[in-house]
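A reminder from the course coordinator: this example appears on the midterm review sheet, so study it carefully.

Given structure:
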């Protein structure tokens, strides 16, 4: 099994049986070797710097009804909010003053008539902070909206495909959502010149190892610049709220597999991972992740962006806890890299 890791490092590819064997492997020595190799490859490309992105959660209003998500439209227990332009700009200013040079604007899927507001907002941020990267995570929109957002100054777009298996995808989403449209959006984003991120929740209900292998193989051929993976975490007001939490170890194993496949990829050690394990962030970095996304949203709305139960948004997970993050990274020999952290070239 150790040879599989070495082949993956050398060739950046395994066949589907190889990926499945690595995912299923219960030999601690092999898993440790996988993480070590991934970390070594990450260090060769990025050194000891970990990129930070300031996350602004624009709104918990959502037109979609994903069965796993706490801000799905059917969840009547959610007190909805939509930040004003002024509030978003204040968050960015606070982030800029702290040193952030990438802003990630994330949101539930806003009504279609909010597209002009989003475009103006991106334009305003671009004009004020021209040295910063703007990443969007706003879900599915028509091609022309993605084009207008790009034209206004957005650089990157995160859109997890969630599952590349159509049957699995359909069990996680309402009938009006389709894998086909999700994948079409990803193609448009790439065609429009965005740096694109995609990914999955690890351990979502009904997900099998074969499904994860399908996801790996999709990501392998799609060649995204960013790969976003976090464990599924139940949210008690959703239809999937009684399913078990995904595995932190499997999530980290996937960070390592993707680091070996894509040495230059931007791979966040996600909030969901840090929510289910207090050591999650550092575990993720030691497995090959190289990005963290502290929260810049106004503190009074953070609890309302409750995608899942217990979502971390304080201490080192918050922009104002940056000193704590520095200390935490130092304990594993890493430091914050305040650069824009653009994707470093060929995957
Ligand atoms: N609406 C946009 C979209 O769909 O891409 C962005 C916001 S959406 C809430 C961001 C991500 O949160 C989703 O892609 C999903 O993977 C993740 N998410 C939602 N509910 C979750 C849960 N219960 N556990 C873990 N991650 C979750």
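Designed residues:
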């Amino acid at each position: 099994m150790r040879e599989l890791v070495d082949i993956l490092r050398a060739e950046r590819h395994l066949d589907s049986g190889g990926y499945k064997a690595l995912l299923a492997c219960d030999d601690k020595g092999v898993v440790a070797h996988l993480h070590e190799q991934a970390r070594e490859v990450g260090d060769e490309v990025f050194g000891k710097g970990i990129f930070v992105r300031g996350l602004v959660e624009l709104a918990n209003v959502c037109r979609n009804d994903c069965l796993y998500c706490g801000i799905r439209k059917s969840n009547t227990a959610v007190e909805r909010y939509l930040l004003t332009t002024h509030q978003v700009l204040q968050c960015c200013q606070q982030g800029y003053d702290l040193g952030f040079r990438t802003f990630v604007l994330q949101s539930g899927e806003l009504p279609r008539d909010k597209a002009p507001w989003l475009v103006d907002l991106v334009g305003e941020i671009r004009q004020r902070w021209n040295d910063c990267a703007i990443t969007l995570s706003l879900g599915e929109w028509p091609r022309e909206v993605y084009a207008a957002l790009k034209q206004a100054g957005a650089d990157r777009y995160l859109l997890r495909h969630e599952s590349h298996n159509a049957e699995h995808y359909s069990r996680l989403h309402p009938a009006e959502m389709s894998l086909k449209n999700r994948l079409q959006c990803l193609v448009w984003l790439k065609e429009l010149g965005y740096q694109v991120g995609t990914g999955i929740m690890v351990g979502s209900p009904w997900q099998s190892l074969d499904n994860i292998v399908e996801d790996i193989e999709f990501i392998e051929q799609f060649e995204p610049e960013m790969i976003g993976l976090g464990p599924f975490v139940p949210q008690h007001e959703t239809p999937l709220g009684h399913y078990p939490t995904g595995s932190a170890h499997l999530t980290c194993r996937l960070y390592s597999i993707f680091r070996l496949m894509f040495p230059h990829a931007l791979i966040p050690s996600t909030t969901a991972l840090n929510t289910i394990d207090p050591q999650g962030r550092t575990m993720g970095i030691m497995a090959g992740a190289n990005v963290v996304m502290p929260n810049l949203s106004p503190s009074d709305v953070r609890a309302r962006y409750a995608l899942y139960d217990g979502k971390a948004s304080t201490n080192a997970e918050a922009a104002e806890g940056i000193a704590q993050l520095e200390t935490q990274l130092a304990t594993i020999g890493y430091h914050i890299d305040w650069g824009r952290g653009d994707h470093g070239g060929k995957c």
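The longest strand covers residues 195-202. The chain has a mean pLDDT of 95.
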